[in-house]
Amino acid sequence: MSNDEMESATEPGIIYLSTIPTGMNVSMISDIMSQFGKLGRVYLVPKATKRGKFRQYDEGWVEFVNKKYAKRVAKNLNCAEVPGSKRNPWFGELWNIRYLPDASWNDLFGAEREEQEQRRSAHDRDILIAKRHARQFTAALEATKLEKKLEVSKGKRFRSRQPIDLNKRQRLTESEILERLARSHRTPPEGSSSLSALSNKDFMTSLFSGGL
Predict the structure, then answer these.
(1) Cβ(60)–Cβ(75) under 8 Å?
(2) Residue 198: how many other CB atoms lie within 10 Å
(3) Bigger pLDDT: 117 or 174?
(4) Which InterPro entries match (predicted)?
């Protein structure tokens, strides 16, 4: 056995069906193709809309465990009439089969699986966000109900909670102003009534000249 024959005996092969006979499904395609050799995977693309009582498919791929089986099917069945009687919905139709050299199943469907995983991850993320929003809404609703119950039970004694404005700055006390001025070595602003002693020049002169 030559090297090419040994490689062909271990390497899988894939055929492409550009059309699927009317009324046939994955099971029927597998039964027909398995007569030529052992199969691997079979995938048919369903049509967007269903017409009649049969599920329709646009195209499909069939993997054989040995590429020589795939070559044999493409050679013998392409453009041949699909076997069946007049009672079969595919009667009179022809096979459209092509062998795909150097093609692997991962090459064909790896990108599609990755897109499916990405869509699934995005869908799961949207579900988590929706659940979190629902929990927040439920918690806010329960808090509102509790506040209304307390208001009814306590009457005039009830004081509703006021929201805290975190952006609102409180006024500094006199001691805080003096401390900041001491750290910055600056004089207090003019016109400050609470710091009149520091801003009075006569008082400061008498203080340092020993007048007091």
Answers:
(1) no
(2) 13
(3) 174
(4) ABT1/Esf2 (IPR039119), ABT1/ESF2_RRM (IPR034353), Nucleotide-bd_a/b_plait_sf (IPR012677), RBD_domain_sf (IPR035979), RRM_dom (IPR000504)
CA 27 to chain centre: 33
At position 145, the amino acid (one-letter code) is: K
Residue at 77: amino acid letter: L
Instruction: Decide if pLDDT at 116 tops 80.
Output: no
Q: Is the CATH code 3.30.70.330 the one for domain 13-103? A: yes
Banded model confidence at residue 212, pLDDT cuts 50, 70, 90? very low
pTM above 0.85, yes or no: no
CA 147, 153, 159 angle in degrees (round to 5)? 50
* Whether the Cβ atoms of residue 67 and residue 12 lie closer than 8 Å to each other: yes
Going from N- to C-terminal start, the domains of the chain cover 13-103, 110-156
The DSSP call for residue 172 is P
Task: State the CB neighbour count (10 A cutoff) for residue 107.
Answer: 11
CB-CB neighbours of 100 under 10 Å: 17
CB 55, CB 61: distance < 8 Å: no
| Dihedral Cα 180, 181, 185, 186, nearest 10 deg | 140
Residues 192 and 169: their CA atoms lie apart, in Å, by 20
